[in-house]
């Protein structure tokens, strides 16, 4: 079972939020959905789960249009900042509601996770702090039996301990019951080690869709005196620059010129996902540079 | 399968809300006047007839159906969060409302029987008894027809509330507020304007007046309880069909965030 997104466009008034997005979400994979504020990440999630109807384009879940298709929508869960649960319900009632409407929900796991996160299931949703509301929804996301879990800013309001616990539980949950997680977060370094594939959205367009390994393998920081660095990186896909005192850095996304010797004054390093993302989506780099 | 789950969830929460409506209705209409009498007016005898309306349960049911029929967005957002689409949401809500109307009208009829037997024999058992209570020679058949017309009327009323609520659900809270405040003000102004041009006199000669008479089953030789029962049944079904289609179409446009 996969999700195929074809030519997906969403326009709000005169603002084009997503433009001709094409992507495939494979089964049993952890994705990172990266993008700056307003890039269209939440809109993409809302379109995948049919909370919004697209202006044009399609979302196919296992070959079937997701539009008002209960069978397709019932295979997905979206955890977002918005609280769509009845505000006066107790946490335990939200679990029961999810079990009733989705049909499959691991109550035992939910109970266990409540203990681990120190969440009292008798508390009403509208009495929970922002962090505990996120925790409640994360517990639902981990305990509901669906094939695709979309997590939009899952760690919003969570302290460092709870964030670490969540990532640990996510990996455990994934290994016990493999399925697809698509995680959108600004805390890229925290998910960098777990995401297998990355989508980068920029100004409503999908600019990167590749495996994390392949992306990082072709991302370089070339450091040294400016003249040597620019000579070495000439003809490559430079996505950004930095100047650190007399040291100059060119960030390159894509292959280096293989037969060009590396000058002694120049060092070539791979960059991490966070740095790559910042460079790709900064004013200097961006979609045009990819 | 998912329709059943959506239906059960909504039925459970709506029935709970309806029971609270009954509690508050009884408290507001019966208990508070009784307490006021006990506290301040012991000089006169307590008169149950004066405080217990014939339409007590009907009033509560009608207010509930308008309020909960019109409340579209809360139900939609819970179901879409749980992977249930707009079509299932609409049909399950319509089915819940239909179930509540039928059960509620049975309660109204039982309450009417109690009222006539215990409180005031001049009262009525069914809401439209005065129009259709003698529609046929058989009191049982006439009673059943009156019950059907009452249920159909409540279906139409509820679907109208669902339509209005669905249209409102397309707008932001701010726009909703403007519409909810603005429309009654506009109607109020129109009412004054209509009074100024003596609309009731003009009304008698318009096709609307003729339509209203036909819809109610009025005829020149009409007497109490002998209105033509076929007319409201046919017109009610047509209206219900049109409103159901319109509400369904609007429901397919629901979205989050608005």
Automatic annotation (TrEMBL), chain A:
Q: Which GO terms describe its molecular function?
A: ATP binding; ATP hydrolysis activity
Look up the signal peptide feature and give its range: none
Tell me the superkingdom of the source.
Answer: Bacteria
Any Pfam family the entry gives: ABC_tran
Domain annotation ABC transporter: ranges: 3-228
- Keywords, sorted A to Z: ATP-binding, Nucleotide-binding
PANTHER family, per the entry: ABC TRANSPORTER, ATP-BINDING PROTEIN (PTHR43158:SF5), SKFA PEPTIDE EXPORT ATP-BINDING PROTEIN SKFE (PTHR43158)
Q: What is this protein called?
A: Abc transporter, atp-binding protein
From TrEMBL, chain B:
**Domain of life per record:** Bacteria
Membrane-traversing stretches: 21-40, 52-73, 94-117, 137-170, 177-197, 229-250
Q: Which UniProt keywords apply?
A: Membrane, Transmembrane, Transmembrane helix
Q: What is the protein named?
A: ABC transporter permease
């Amino acid at each position: 079972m996969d999700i195929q997104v074809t030519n997906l466009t969403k326009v709000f008034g005169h603002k084009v939020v997503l433009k001709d997005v094409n992507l495939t979400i494979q089964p049993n994979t952890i994705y990172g959905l990266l993008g700056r504020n307003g890039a269209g990440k939440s809109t993409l999630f809302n379109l995948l789960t049919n909370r919004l109807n697209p202006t044009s384009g399609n979302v196919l879940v296992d070959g079937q249009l997701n539009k008002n298709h209960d069978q397709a929508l019932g295979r997905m869960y979206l955890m977002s900042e918005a609280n769509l649960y009845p505000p006066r319900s107790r946490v335990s009632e939200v679990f029961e509601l999810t079990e009733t409407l989705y049909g499959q929900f691991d109550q035992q796991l939910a109970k266990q996770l409540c203990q681990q996160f120190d969440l009292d299931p008798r508390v009403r949703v509208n009495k929970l702090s922002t962090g505990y509301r996120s925790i409640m929804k994360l517990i639902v996301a981990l305990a509901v039996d669906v094939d695709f879990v979309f997590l939009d800013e899952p760690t919003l309001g969570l302290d460092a301990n709870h964030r670490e616990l969540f990532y640990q539980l996510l990996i455990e949950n994934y290994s016990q019951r493999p399925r697809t997680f698509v995680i959108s977060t600004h805390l890229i370094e925290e998910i960098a080690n777990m995401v297998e594939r990355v989508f980068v959205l920029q100004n409503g367009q999908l600019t990167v869709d590749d495996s994390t390994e392949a992306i990082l393998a072709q991302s370089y920081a070339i450091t040294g005196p400016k003249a040597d660095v620019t000579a070495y990186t000439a003809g490559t896909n430079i996505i950004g620059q930095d100047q650190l005192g007399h040291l100059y850095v060119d960030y390159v996304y894509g292959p280096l010129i293989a037969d060009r010797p590396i000058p002694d004054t120049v060092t070539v390093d791979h960059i991490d996902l966070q740095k790559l993302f910042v460079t790709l989506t900064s004013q200097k780099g961006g979609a045009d540079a990819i | 399968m998912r329709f059943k789950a959506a239906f059960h969830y909504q039925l459970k929460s709506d029935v709970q809300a309806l029971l609270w409506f009954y509690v508050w209705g009884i408290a507001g209409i019966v208990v508070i006047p009784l307490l006021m009498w006990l506290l301040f007016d012991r000089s006169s005898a307590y008169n149950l007839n004066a405080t217990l309306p014939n339409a007590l349960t009907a009033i509560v049911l009608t207010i509930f159906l308008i309020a909960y029929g019109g409340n579209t967005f809360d139900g939609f957002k819970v179901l879409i969060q749980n992977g249930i689409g707009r079509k299932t949401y609409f049909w399950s809500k319509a089915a819940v409302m239909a179930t509540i109307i039928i059960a509620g009208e049975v309660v109204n009829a039982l309450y009417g029987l109690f009222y006539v037997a215990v409180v005031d024999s001049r009262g009525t058992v069914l809401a439209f008894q005065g129009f259709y209570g003698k529609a046929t020679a058989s009191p049982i058949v006439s009673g059943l027809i009156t019950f059907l017309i009452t249920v159909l009327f409540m279906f139409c009323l509820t679907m109208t509330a669902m339509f209005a609520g669905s249209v409102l659900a397309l707008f932001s809270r701010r726009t909703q507020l403007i519409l909810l405040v603005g429309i009654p003000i506009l109607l109020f102004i129109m009412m004054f304007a209509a009074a100024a041009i003596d609309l009731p006199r003009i009304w008698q000669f318009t096709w609307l007046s003729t339509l209203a008479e036909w819809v109610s089953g009025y005829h020149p030789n009409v007497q109490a309880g002998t209105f033509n029962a076929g007319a409201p049944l046919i017109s009610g079904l047509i209206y219900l069909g049109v409103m159901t289609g319109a509400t369904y179409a609007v429901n397919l446009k629901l979205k989050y965030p608005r």
